[in-house]
Specification:
Helix content is 20%, strand content 23%. The protein is of the alpha+beta class and 273 residues long.
Length: 273
């Protein structure tokens, strides 16, 4: 058997072309040379890059996912059973029977007096006004940089295009209430249909009461989905925020714990009841 020498240590291996110093003076380090910084320091972040599709501005970001959920979970008008109202979130709203493909896509809207789906196959693909026979009672738009002008009625209609969002809500559908929330400026705007036009309503303390619903809508500072921030949510006639299902479960658990402690203080084991 032939005996082979052990491999040389790295320091004794002959250099390759990749190990030899470069002869290009541009590749030589100089005291003035600044080495490249890592990409997370130099590349654009989510604040620098557009979050909207240029062909369809206003596409949801993460806030546009969570905020409508909170509105849905806390919208519990005492005068309307849940099976007699429909809530749409980022759903096509078809409004013109003569131009059947014209639609808007509100961030959130509420329709009163329509039956909600009882079976999965009945769930709406879109909300078609001429099929349902009832227009929304209230629409909420969450301001996005790409849609702010149209959301606030500052965009004029192009004669070759469908009417703007504001025109549809105000003139075509005559929706009684139009709500706009700007989380960046912490500003809640309420527009109420008066005669044929929307009129801005004063919103003291960032809250507005809807007599028809016996519910109010306001800006709440709190934690939702483990995220602290400013949120729109509904409140009741006593001014208390309507709890979410998770909050109700926590409240029930707390009450059960307090009751158990009370029973134990009386010498009763709650686990035997």
């Amino acid at each position: 058997m032939y005996q082979t020498d052990p491999p040389l240590p790295p320091s004794e291996v002959m250099p390759t072309m990749y190990d030899l110093p470069s002869e290009d003076p541009q590749d030589q380090d100089t005291p003035e040379q600044v080495h490249p910084r890592p990409p997370w320091e130099t590349m654009p972040t989510m604040y620098d890059l557009p979050s909207e599709d240029p062909e369809e501005p206003g596409l949801p970001d993460e806030f546009h996912d969570f905020q409508p959920q909170l509105l849905r979970e806390t919208c519990q008008p005492p005068s309307y059973p849940t099976e007699e109202m429909f809530i749409g979130t980022d759903l096509n709203l078809y409004y013109d029977a003569r131009n059947r493909l014209w639609q808007k896509r509100p961030d959130w809207f509420l329709v009163l007096g329509v039956a909600r789906a009882q079976q999965q196959q009945q769930m709406r693909l879109s909300y078609v006004v001429w099929q349902e026979g009832i227009a929304p009672f209230l629409v909420v738009e969450l301001l996005s940089p790409g849609t702010e002008a149209e959301d606030l009625g500052q965009t004029l209609r192009d004669a070759k295009k469908p009417p703007t969002k504001w025109q549809v809500y105000e003139q075509n559908l005559r929706i009684p209430y139009y709500i706009v929330f700007d989380r960046y400026q912490n500003q809640l705007r309420v527009f109420q249909l008066t005669a044929t036009q929307y009129q801005a309503v004063d919103v003291p303390e960032q809250k507005f009461w809807f007599e028809e619903l016996q519910l109010g809508l306001g800006v709440w500072q709190g934690r939702y989905q483990q995220i602290e921030g400013l949120w729109l949510r509904w409140y009741d006639a006593t001014g208390n925020w309507i709890p979410t299902p998770e909050e109700r479960a926590e409240q029930e658990h707390l009450r059960a714990e307090l009751l158990a402690q009370r029973l134990r203080s009386l010498g009763v084991d709650p686990d035997t009841l």
